[in-house]
Structures are given as structure tokens and as C-alpha cells.
Amino acid sequence: MGFRGLVYRLYARRLETSLSPEAIPRHVGVMCDGNRRWARSAGLLDVASGHQKGADKIFELLEWCREAGVEVVTLWLLSTDNLARPAAELEPLLRIIEATVRRLVAERWHVNPMGALDLLPGGTARVLKDAADATAENPGLLVNVAIGYGGRREIADAVRSLLHEHATRGTSIEELAEILDVEHIAEHLYTAGQPDPDLVIRTSGEQRIGGFLLWQTIHSEFYFCDAYWPAFRKVDFLRALRSYADRNRRFGT
Fold this sequence. Notes:
The protein is of the alpha/beta class.
């Protein structure tokens, strides 16, 4: 290990020891942004190389989260808008996502797919559904994989599910309008039963929410990191945790 590596490890250790267990977020959302730009900055002609590097980074992040005591991680890997990309780029990306989900299963993470699976190719949707079934009883960190995900679509799906549920009960629209509140909708979101994200990290220097967990992030703290996702380091993650711990959270204001 060179001098620079030693300094890096000492700095990471210092950050770790400065974090109080009481200040660790229960739920961390990550917008894994910058794979294509990382590939181009590295001089790689095939952007799939960036997506693969980003996929590998996921497993490092999950270990960091487990070590820190995080309970839930939501990873935004593919938006509904991304589905409109040219087939030459989308198809290799879907293969990488499928392989990543299979690896999550093999490593015994608790995988919860979230998104409009009906918009995905049948093979990809089956991989996600099989992962959910195979890992449903796995203990420990819950990993939400947001694939074919859009925040507006999630809310529309939640309302649609709510309406279907009450229709089967024979509830009229008028009766539903009288009793409807925010909790009824929250119970039908992709993250139903989970704590809302305490901290959302977005890589690549972009400072916008982009439709990520629109309902759930109303009280979340945000941390924007300049590093592209494949270049995201443990010290970047620990800095995000430190930033979160240093904030005075004001719920509702």
C-alpha cells in the first residue's frame, strides 16, 4: 500500500469513528448517476463498460451500508424514461441489471424490486420477480432495486391499486372520497411498510430529484456528490453520513 492509500484508509477510519450509531439513517436512497459519463471520461467507447462498473459498485455500497447499520437501501438503476433509449444501449444495460439482480440473490441479500415491471421485457421482469420470491425470507439489509421506476408512475400505480382494492369491497367513489387520506395511498406505494428515506445520495454532480421517490422524500435529507457513480468511494459515502448526522432535521418546514 502506497502513502496515498494509507492516508485514504486513515481518513476513512477517522470518519467512521466520528459517526454516532444514533445518527445513522435507517433508509438510504441512492441515485446511481454518471455511468455513461464515467465511461467517456475514462476514454471507453462502449458505455456498457460504465454500466458494468456501476453495477459492481453496488456491492461495495451494500457492504458499507451493512457495516454502518443502515436497514434499507433503495437503488435507482433504471428510470421509465431510460426505457426510451436506443436498443443498442438499452439491451446491454438490461442484461447487466439482470446479472446484478442474480448476484444479489446469490449473495443472499433481501431483494425487493420496485417499478413498473409491466413496462420491462418479459425476461427482465421474470428475473426481478424470481429474485423477490427467492429472497423474501432473507434477514438483514433490505435492498430495493428501482428498475423501470418513475415517481409519478408509482403514485399513479398506488392510487390505481387503492381504487381496485375498494372496488372489490364494494366501496363507492363517494364513500372513498370521504375517508381517503395520505396513509391510504402510502399503503399502496412500492415501499409500503418501509420507513421513508432519511438520506438520499445523488452522484455525478447533478442536483435535482429527477422523480426519485417523490412521495417518500418529503422529509429526506439530500447529499449531492460530484463523483460519477462508478468512482464513488467509501469516503464519499462516509462524508454523506457525516453530513446527514450534522444536520438539524426540520420535519414539515
